[in-house]
Structures are given as C-alpha cells and as structure tokens.
C-alpha cells in the first residue's frame, strides 16, 4: 500500500498536471485568437510575436511529458489515476499541434501582407473563432471532467469541417477569377486547413476527456473528415 | 521484486508491442507508396482501396494504446522499460497520422482523375518515395534500437522540406499559367503538404527512438519547418 506521504505527493503531481494542461490550453487558444486578429488586421508585428511564442507551447509539452514519465515511474498509478496521466500526455501533444497550426497561420499572414487583400475573410475569421471556442471549451471540459461538454465540442467539429469545405470551393473560384489572387488565396486555403485541423485536435482532446471520465472512447462514429479533398471546381462553374 | 512469471509476461508484452509497431509501420509505409502509385497512374480503384484500408491503422493505434495502458497498470515498468512503453504509444500516434495523410492523398487522387493531368508529378513522386523511405528506416531504427539510423532519418527531413518549398512555388506558377490547372494544382499542393507532414512524423518517431535508446531527445536543433508558408509568387515572376 502507498504511504500517506506518497498519496499526498501523487495528488500534488496530478494537480500540477491539471494546472499545466489548463495553462497550455489557455495559451494555445490565445495563439489562435491572436493569429485571427493578425490575419484580419494584416498585422506583421502581431504575427511575428505569435511565431516567437510557439516555443512556449513546445516547452509546455516537454515539461508535461517529463512530469508524466516521472509520475509513471515513481507512483505507478492505476485505474483512474493512470488514465489521468495518459490523458495529460495525449492532451499536451494535441495542444502543441494547435500551437503549431496557429503559428503556421501567423507565418502565412506575413506572406499575405505582401499581396493585396482578397478572399472570404469574414467566414475565415468566424471559422477561426469557432475553433478557438472549441479549444476553450474542451480544456474546460478536461478541467471540470465534464463529459457532456466534451461530447458537445466533438459534435461541433462537423460545423468546422462544413465551413472548411465550403471555403475551399469559394477560394478556388476566387483563384480562377484572377491570377493576381492565387498566392493570397493559396495561403488562405492553408490557413483554413490549419483551422480545420485545430478542430480535429480539439475533437481528439474531447475524446480523451471521455476516456478519462468514463474509461472508454465514445462509440458513435462521427463524420471525421472534411469533404474538400474530393472537391473539383472548373473555371466554367463560376 | 517482480516474480519470474511477471518478468516473462512483461517481456512477452514488450515483444508484442514491438511486433505491432513494426507491422503498423510496414502498413503505413505501404499506404504511402500505394498512394504515390495511385497518383502517378491516376488509378481510382487503387485510391479507393487505400482509403478503405486506413481503418486498419486506426485499429492498430487503438490496440497499441490499449496494450500500453494494460502494461502500465499491470507491470508498472520503470526506466528503460517505461521508455519502451511510452515510446510505443507515441510512435503509434505518429504512424496513425502517416496513414491519415496517405489516405488524404488518395482522396485527392479521386478529384485529380476528374481533371486533366498537370503539375510536376516526377518531383512529387520522388518526394513521396523519400518520405516512404524515411518511414521505413525509422521503423527499422526503432526495431533495431539504432540511434545512428534514427539521427540520419531526422537529418533527411530537411531535404523533404526543401523539395516541398520548391514544389509549392512551382505549383503556384502552374496555377497562374491557366485557371484550368487551379483545381488540380491545389490538390497537388495539399498532397505535397501531406508528404511534408509525413516527413515531420517520421522525424518525431526518430526523436522518440533517440529518447528510447539514450533517455533523451537529441540536442541539436533542426530546421523544423518548410519555408513555403512565407512564399509569395506574383504572376509577373513567371
């Protein structure tokens, strides 16, 4: 049996894991929100600061992984405690990816400021905000162990996928209208794809929260992928 | 102290983890190679079979994760044994992503067969083969615990990134030449991006192998990202 001292130490470590994930989630969400601001405002300085800050998320992930390995080795947790630790590892990996995608959006803002503004910016911005809310809510679901909220986030991913597929089509038609818009629209397309991927990572985290709370991944198969990969638009469709 | 029986059972479970990762790696590599074949041959049937087979990789990942959780709970491994188990978890996540990207390439082949052939197919195919070799070699590095091979794979990622950045520019110029090529080139661009991401996942696995063998991630910072996100091409550059 573990001693009282060990139990207290373990609880403290789990609390630290929770806190670190919550902080990392807040930063990942903020990076995405700021990337959308930089995009709309064509703000190179803001974009630069987002790119520079991505290392903080990389460091967060490394710290959480080190703590997970330490807890597994020292405390040898079981059942729910073990799920806590595995979940922290998986969630941190997903949040780090959210950060990478936000940073990549910021890099593309740097390219976009060099060409005339174009494209369906409002839809793109709205899609970004939806994804940021998903990240916010899924981290809240993790902190509160709120299964229903996690499932709600997971359901919302279909909305992001649908907007992405429609944006993909729309951007293709913009590109066909004039070659001057191709570079800009290509970057906007990748920004949209980044946001769609952020939605996927929020969904992965939601499933991890379900695993944490109930011990298994939810059954209902969700429509996983956007349909843009199958999209064909020809110039005469416009 | 663990009993002899426990040690034997643990060794058998580690051997199973190794075998499952090796099999999963083989399948992920094969999916990518076949996706490139489908692309070059414009083969819809092959593309369909690749898309259908992606569930096998999803199942592999779920099985490995279940085994990891089981081993952690029952055997409470430490030191190198613990690294073995954590590494298996991380590698399976990365291989599953390799599968997703290969499957996404196959989906885009379905769209590409509906439009006239265009684009720098040879370079794209070569890039795909390089990434497939990276996946092959990094799984071999894992099986053989070959640190040097893992480091060599990691170094090769810069080559894939450079080809991607150059392909991105080239595809932009193709698109500017004629609106008829925009849909095709957009899908080719995302295929190139998928391959670039597969290179990143092979690199992640290489770093995990280094962590497994030496207990830490290699120090030397590698040039992480392709430069395409910053690329601007205007029609007059052609």
UniProtKB/TrEMBL annotation, chains A, B:
User: Pfam families this protein is in?
Assistant: PhoU (PF01895)
Superkingdom of the source species:
Bacteria
Physiological role:
Plays a role in the regulation of phosphate uptake.
Q: Which UniProt keywords are listed?
A: Cytoplasm, Phosphate transport, Transport
Per UniProt, residues of the PhoU domain are 21-109, 124-209
Q: What is this protein called?
A: Phosphate-specific transport system accessory protein PhoU
Question: What is the native source organism of this protein?
Answer: Skermanella aerolata
Any GO BP annotation: phosphate ion transport
The main location class comes to cytoplasm
Q: Which family does it belong to?
A: Belongs to the PhoU family.
The UniProt entry's GO CC annotations, sorted and at most eight, read:
cytoplasm
Subcellular localization(s) per the UniProt record: Cytoplasm
